[in-house]
């Protein structure tokens, strides 16, 4: 395991736990991609690169050979303008206005561990001997530009991370028009493409379709990774499924505009590329300056989607998320948003917190509406001082009263925004993103603060620090409720306006780094109208994310299933809310709402003071049960058993690493007349072990449960039913 360099062949072989990635300096310094897939002990070119004289695929000027074309060479970081007609990974406009470049191998370096990325979130190592990093420098002498391609391979994981640093080594400024993070040229197109797409309230739905010739892409132009598309793409071998077959997953560690593309060319090769969306992007690089592209996490699995997900989960849980909460069980919370919206008093808040305490809930979260004149969503973002009409004794007093009840206290903020109706906006009308001579479009009556500007970043950091220091806050919900329009910055010259969206992200990351380090005892949960920014970039700073504003248990099955493809369960905020549900107006039982929410990072979001005695007993039992299984849900391995995208049923299993304890949830959406008898095959248990089903006198072997299955009681009646089992090894 590690990175091997064969000097004679100029060949690099990166070996992870079960995966190999092979590249070679080919011909006159072209960096070619040879292989990515299941691990091979050696790479001896059994599937050699082949060339033929291909019509209309020209030959680079220095090649004498008519069979050699960049159009047919699988490459690691392809450029534009000299015979490759496929999508380039980068494009640079030189001082003379032209855009033809030619990067060739110059040098390389192999080192232990993984260096940090400048100003950007990234996966990390804790010990130097966990991983090795290869840095290959490519150079274009004429253009005076260099690209440093970084690859990290983890010895005990099926993960390769990649990123690129572009450097202007010349004497003139150059403009990056495109600077993607990763390019992989597969030598066939025998794949399905899987993406996570959706909208507000139905985020990350699984879409799988056959790759077709030409370009297919998912992307965001919204200034956020978005509800609509996630910065993730996977190629699946035909027939690959949840438990078997090859899967290649790509996830960009970035929270802004991105593109993820697959292009099937004329010879059925597939080029996958991912990075910052080149749409409305450019970056001026002065002499000596460098541009750091975000990181891509690439996961290989020969054990289907389940294997891919568990690799992502384990990596993100332990080597992306940081801080003291990384390894701590997370508190069960109650949030007042759907209970009161903007209409609350200090007394009401304390009553809800008190009711929560009596039910065993551990954290109370005060949502939107506690500041400025915020009685609706038309006003006060940016005015981060307490609303004395609602909270006459202030935040500190409220936090203390909640804590005196034995509950932790959490607070909602939306620091990236300003309301036009606010004192902040009156004072600094140019602090929002805007372009000269045009009015700003509003969305939810709010404008986006210009985090590309230092004085704005400093002011926001100070305001939020003051709030968090003013009261004993133990949890923060960091919200962001609109996408960017009129993207321009008053701080940037004309030639740098198209840098604004990326500079905003760098500014956001800087603020998050400062605040999460200064307030390292606070648990941060991110949110963007629910799951509009559920991406690894944000998870680096804030270890959990509110998965969706849609709290309906049935809708949540698809949202949480889709999210689980990439993101660990512990990162996924999931709450029990009232019925009829506020988003889809559906009635479901408290039981199924509990089971759906307990399948994530658990909490409640309803007026607990209005529960009946019977409901209180159910909630108490749910809270107690979650406390018993949360180490499995939050730190165990996750196995998807039945997909809500394939039928009426959903099921999943959580098991600890020792495989001595497991929890299984089953959901059936609609009752069916005269239905067939169902069973669940419990993947993930130890086949050698015997398990008791807790609360019953049943005992089964892990092998029997996995191979023959567990029957689903035929007595289940009615729509929206769920079941929950716990297994303990004996
Ligand atoms: C959107 C969030 O997703 C909700 O949970 C809530 O916090 C509201 N914003 C408050 O405005």
Structure description:
The protein has twelve helices and 38 strands. By secondary structure, the protein is of the alpha+beta class. It has three domains: 76-319, alpha-galactosidase from lactobacil brevis (Beta-galactosidase, Chain A, domain 5), CATH 2.70.98.60; 333-414 and 458-480 and 519-636, Alpha-Beta Barrel (TIM Barrel), CATH 3.20.20; 649-729, Golgi alpha-mannosidase II (Immunoglobulin-like). The strands form seven sheets. Strands 6, 7, 8, 9, 11, 12, 14, 15, 19 and 20 form a ten-stranded antiparallel sheet that branches. It has an eight-stranded parallel barrel with strand order 21-22-23-26-27-28-29-30, surrounded by five helices. Strands 5, 10, 13, 16, 17 and 18 form a six-stranded antiparallel sheet that branches. Strand 1 (2-6) and strand 2 (11-15) form a beta hairpin. Helix 9 packs parallel to helix 10 (590-598). The two termini are 36 Å apart. The mean pLDDT is 97. Residues 337, 367-368, 412, 479, 481, 527, 529-530, 546, 549 line the site of (2R,3S,4R,5S)-2-(hydroxymethyl)piperidine-3,4,5-triol (DGJ).
């Amino acid at each position: 395991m590690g990175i091997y360099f064969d000097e004679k062949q100029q060949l690099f072989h990166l070996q992870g736990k079960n995966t190999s990635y092979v590249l070679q300096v080919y011909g006159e310094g072209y960096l070619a991609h040879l292989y990515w897939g299941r691990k091979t002990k050696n790479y001896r070119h059994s599937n050699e690169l082949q060339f033929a004289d291909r019509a209309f695929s020209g030959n680079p000027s220095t090649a004498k050979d008519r069979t050699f074309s960049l159009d047919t060479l699988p490459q690691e970081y392809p450029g534009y303008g000299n015979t490759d007609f496929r999508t380039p990974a980068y494009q640079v406009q030189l001082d003379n206005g032209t855009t033809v470049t030619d990067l060739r191998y110059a040098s390389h370096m192999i080192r232990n561990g993984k260096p940090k990325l400048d100003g950007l979130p990234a996966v990390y190592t804790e010990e130097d001997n966990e991983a090795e990093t290869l840095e290959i420098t490519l150079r274009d002498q004429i253009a005076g530009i260099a690209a440093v391609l970084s690859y990290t391979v983890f010895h005990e994981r099926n993960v390769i991370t990649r990123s690129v640093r572009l450097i202007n080594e010349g004497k003139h400024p150059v403009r990056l028009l495109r600077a993607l993070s990763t390019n992989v040229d597969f030598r066939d197109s025998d794949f399905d493409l899987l993406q996570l797409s959706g909208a507000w309230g139905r985020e990350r739905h699984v879409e799988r379709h056959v790759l077709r010739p030409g370009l297919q892409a998912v992307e965001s132009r919204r200034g956020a990774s978005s509800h609509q598309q996630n910065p993730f793409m996977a190629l699946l071998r035909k027939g690959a499924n949840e438990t078997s077959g090859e899967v290649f997953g790509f996830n960009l560690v970035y929270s802004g505009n991105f593109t993820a593309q697959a292009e099937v060319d004329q010879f059925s090769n597939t080029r996958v590329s991912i990075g910052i969306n080149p749409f409305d992007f450019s970056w001026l690089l002065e002499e000596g300056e460098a541009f750091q592209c975000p990181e891509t996490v690439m996961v290989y699995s020969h054990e289907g989607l389940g294997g891919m997900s568990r690799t992502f989960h384990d990596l993100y849980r332990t080597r992306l998320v940081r801080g003291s909460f990384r390894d701590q069980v997370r508190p069960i919370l109650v949030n007042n948003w759907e209970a009161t919206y903007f209409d609350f008093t200090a007394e009401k808040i304390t009553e809800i917190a008190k009711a929560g305490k009596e039910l065993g809930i551990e954290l109370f979260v005060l949502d939107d509406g506690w500041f400025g004149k915020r009685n609706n969503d038309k006003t006060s973002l940016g005015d981060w001082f307490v609303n004395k009409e609602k909270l006459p004794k202030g935040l500190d007093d409220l936090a203390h009263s909640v804590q005196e009840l034995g509950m932790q206290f959490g607070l909602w903020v939306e620091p990236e925004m300003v309301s036009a109706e606010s004192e902040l906006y009156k004072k600094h009308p140019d602090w929002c993103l805007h372009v000269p001579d045009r009015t700003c479009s509003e969305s939810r009556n709010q404008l986006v603060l210009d985090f590309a500007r230092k004085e704005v970043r400093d002011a926001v950091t100070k305001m939020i620090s003051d709030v968090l220091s003013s009261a004993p806050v133990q949890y923060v919900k960091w919200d962001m409720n609109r996408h960017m329009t009129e993207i321009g910055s008053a701080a940037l010259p004309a030639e740098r306006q198209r840098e604004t969206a990326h500079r905003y992200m760098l500014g956001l990351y800087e603020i998050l780094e400062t605040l999460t380090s200064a307030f390292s005892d606070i648990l941060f949960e991110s949110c963007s109208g629910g799951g509009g920014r559920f991406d690894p970039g944000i998870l680096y700073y804030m270890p959990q994310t509110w998965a969706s504003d849609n709290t309906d248990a049935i809708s949540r099955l698809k949202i949480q299933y889709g999210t689980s493809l990439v993101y660990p369960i512990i990162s996924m905020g999931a709450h029990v809310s009232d019925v009829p549900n506020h988003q889809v107006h559906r009635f479901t039982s408290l039981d199924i709402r509990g089971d759906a929410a307990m399948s994530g990072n658990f909490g409640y979001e309803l007026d607990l003071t209005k529960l009946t005695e019977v409901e209180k007993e159910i909630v108490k039992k749910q809270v107690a049960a979650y406390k018993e299984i949360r180490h499995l849900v939050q730190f165990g391995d996750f196995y998807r058993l039945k997909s809500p995208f394939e039928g009426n049923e959903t099921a999943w299993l959580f098991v600890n690493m020792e495989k001595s304890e497991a929890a299984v949830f089953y959901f059936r959406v609609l009752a069916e007349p005269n239905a067939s008898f169902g069973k669940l095959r419990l993947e993930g248990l130890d086949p050698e072990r015997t398990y008791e089903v807790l609360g019953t006198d049943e005992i089964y072997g892990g092998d029997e449960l996995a191979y023959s299955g567990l029957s689903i009681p035929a007595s289940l009646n009615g729509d929206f039913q769920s079941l929950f089992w716990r297994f303990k090894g004996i």
